[in-house]
Every structure is written in structure tokens, then in C-alpha cells.
Amino acid sequence: METDKMMLTYLLKHQQHRNLDAIVEVLNNNRFWEIFPPLQVEVISWKVLIGLGHLITLSFHPSQLRTVNLAIEKGAWGAFNTEAYATYDYLDVWKEKRNN
Questions:
Q1: Is 12 buried (19+), middle (13-18) or exposed (0-12) by CB count in 10 A?
Q2: What are the CA-CA distances from residue 62 to residues 30, 34, 69 (Å)?
Q3: 12, 15, 36, 43: least CB-packed within 10 angstroms?
Q4: Nearest to 42 by CA among 92, 91, 95, 1
Q5: How confident is the model at residue 3 (pLDDT cuts 50, 70, 90)?
Q6: Where residue 90 falls among pLDDT bands split at 50, 70, 90?
Q7: b vs e for 61-73, b when ≥16 Cβ sit within 10 Å of the residue's Cβ?
């Protein structure tokens, strides 16, 4: 794993008082698809959790944290309630423990 990068997972929770058309309208008005993710930010995974929202894990240099956060604030706010979590990959550790 690269040590000069960090991973951050965002949970974009659907605002249930809005239907899908209203959420899409907010995202389009906020230019979400143009500004997120910012340049040089790698999308590790992007899942839809049915009934909850989007779970997005990003990898980037720590100096980009403010840029990533601003892209969420400017692009997703108004369509989603957001949560962010520092993340690391545990899959290889889990596999090793399972095989022992």
C-alpha cells in the first residue's frame, strides 16, 4: 500500500424527503458530476446501498483533503446528508487471519 496517500470513505445518505428526480436536479445544479471527484483523486469503490445512499472510498494525497471536502460540500450538500470516515484496507489482514 502506498504510504503517501490516504483513504477516505464518504457515506452520502439520501435525503428521504426528496425523490430521485429532486436529488438529480440538486446534483446537476451543483455541478456534482463535474467537480467530484477532484482531479488526481482515485475512486477505490463506489457502491449504492439500497435504501441508504452511496458509499464512496477515495484515495489521495493528504494535501488534497480540503479540495475533496470542498467538492462534497459544494456538490453533494442539498441532495445528501454526508458522513466521512478515514479508511484503510483490511481485506489482506482478514484473509491472512482466516487462513491461520
A1: buried
A2: 25, 22, 11
A3: 43
A4: 1
A5: low
A6: confident
A7: eeebeebbeebbe
